[in-house]
Amino acid sequence: xxxxxxxxxxxxxxxxxxxxxxxxxxxxxxxxxxxxxxxxxxxxxxxxxxxxxxxxxxxxxxxxxxxxxxxxxxxxxxxxxxxxxxxxxxxxxxxxxxxxxxxxxxxxxxxxxxxxxxxxxxxxxxxxxxxxxxxxxxxxxxxxxxxxxxxxxxxxxxxxxxxxxxxxxxxxxxxxxxxxxxxxxxxxxxxxxxxxxxxxxxxxxxxxxxxxxxxxxxxxxxxxxxxxxxxxxxxxxxxxxxxxxxxxxxxxxxxxxxxxxxxxxxxxxxxxxxxxxxxxxxxxxxxxxxxxxxxxxxxxxxxxxxxxxx
Length: 310
Ligand code: 5GP
Ligand code: MN
Prior knowledge:
Blueprint: E1 6-10, H1 17-32, E2 36-41, E3 58-60, E4 70-74, E5 92-96, E6 107-110, H2 117-127, H3 134-147, H4 158-169, H5 174-182, H6 187-198, E7 201-203, E8 208-213, H7 215-221, E9 243-250, E10 253-260, H8 266-272, E11 276-278, E12 281-286, H9 291-308
Helix pairs in contact: 1-2, 1-3, 2-3, 3-4, 3-5, 6-7
Bound molecules: guanosine-5'-monophosphate and manganese (II) ion.
Residues 18, 75, 97, 116-117, 147 line the site of manganese (II) ion (MN).
């Protein structure tokens, strides 16, 4: 990476806090080393992340045609997760922490023990000898805060807190960032949350919570389609609930998000439907949904719960 002059960064479609924070922090560090850096993503950042410093440098496009010396793909278990075409023949550096990474890069740095890709980026910035600025520290902190579910998921280790200590030393204000992420949302988001929880169904002896979203509900709640982050986690607050499945019906397809507690492995369920993710947070898309497929999703989650109890 030190030899490359022109570097392109990218990450997965429908970016989250980790993909945005990791890309922005690495871009800032590489620019400090005098490199030309572009970030190209297929989808814009959710409104929630509008406060991130330098967010405007991210270009939104579905292809990358200009020449560059290296492409750094962050947070993607496979190259097609980027949704960006024209990357295949490039010198690709794959940096990721998702189980099942298919090692598509010319260089692959896959670390399943990282709590967020931002942990890897933080180590990389260190190795490049670049000092953390407040903006870079903010990027990394938002990535770690959101990808760990506010420091609650598995994979949080002493290393996580060591990195956060360095981030805090760089001058960020954790309380202000938490306020931006958690108490600066829209009324529509809260209204939609109410509608979804009100209609929540429980399956498998109240161990699976099922949420269903239709476009009409978005309109009724006056909530933007990309303003639904975090809602899927809420049913986990119930003692008996072991997993949550959130079906988001849009047009002809259904995006499915699954969350779980402890040893319940929902990644395997997502993989069985062509998706992926982590043990406790995974997702996939059903292209041609039927009542039978959604039933099957719930059955496979029930099996994952049963397996975790053996
Ligand atoms: P979310 O439910 O928030 O969209 O995604 C949860 C986790 O699963 C994230 O780590 C995300 O990258 C991963 N994920 C979501 N959808 C897909 C998918 O279609 N394919 C793969 N490989 N991973 C996914
Ligand atoms: Mn991540």
